[in-house]
Write a structure and sequence with these properties.
Elements: E1 3-7, H1 14-25, E2 29-31, H2 32-42, H3 45-56, H4 62-73, E3 82-85, H5 91-103, E4 110-115, H6 118-132, H7 139-153, H8 156-162, E5 166-170, H9 175-188
Parallel strand pairs: 1-3, 1-4, 2-3, 4-5
Bound molecules: adenosine monophosphate.
Adenosine monophosphate (AMP) binds at residues 10, 32-33, 36, 53-54, 57-60, 65, 86-87, 89, 93, 136, 145.
């Protein structure tokens, strides 16, 4: 029980919680946003392809994102498990993830949706913009990212719910409390310690 997806709006704390969950499960956290940002910083071809979309708060095209994730999930350290943070975000990415996992004889064990209040997120992310200098955390871009999330990614929860994989966890409040809630929810649904 070690292949997890973390769904949730930008600013719900997915990055922090994915890293903690991955550590507790001894699997890598795979964050598409982090991979894109690293490539932007290093000026790679992938980074150049992604940057304008990221700065505008748009999704990087599925063709680009899917290729990158397929390569990452076929790396040795991800074969026994992973926590995916920020992927899938579109219905097409859901299909591609199924295909990649089927290709290595695997499937998802759980999908956790971290829920969060949009007004609270705008406050959090604009603060992150000041603290970390992220160019996609200005208020206008944050609001647009939330709209894109509501339109394209929030509906994915229903797909995974229909498959019996979805667990919902309140992502608001203290980060340590959220981690406890997450581990409890996964334990209660059979994921912890297996
Ligand atoms: P994040 O750090 O997860 O909020 O991602 C930052 C930005 O990277 C997003 O606003 C998108 O522009 C891009 N990105 C990350 N993951 C994906 C994805 N699965 N599909 C498309 N674009 C993505």
């Amino acid at each position: 029980m070690s292949r997890l997806v973390l769904l949730g709006p930008p600013g719900a704390g997915k990055g922090t919680q994915a890293a903690r969950l991955a550590k507790s499960m001894s699997v890598p956290a795979v964050s598409t946003g982090d991979i894109f940002r690293r490539n932007v910083t290093e000026g790679t071809e992938l980074g150049v392809a992604a940057k304008s979309y990221m700065d505008a708060g748009e999704y990087v095209p599925d063709s680009v994102t899917n290729t990158m994730v397929a390569e990452r999930l076929r790396e040795q350290d991800a074969l026994d498990g992973f926590v995916l943070d920020g992927y899938p975000r579109t219905a097409e990415q859901v299909t591609e993830l199924d295909r990649v996992l089927a290709g290595v004889g695997a499937s998802l064990d759980r999908v956790v949706e971290l829920t969060a209040d949009f007004d609270e997120i705008v406050t959090r992310l604009t603060k992150r913009s000041t603290d970390q200098g992220r160019s996609d955390d200005t208020e206008g871009v944050v609001r647009h990212r939330l709209e894109v999330y509501a339109e394209q990614t929030a509906p994915l929860a229903a797909i995974y719910d229909d498959r019996g994989l979805l667990v919902r966890v309140n992502g608001m409040g203290d980060m340590d409390d959220v981690t406890v809630r997450l581990l409890d929810a996964l334990g209660a649904s059979g994921a912890r310690g297996t």
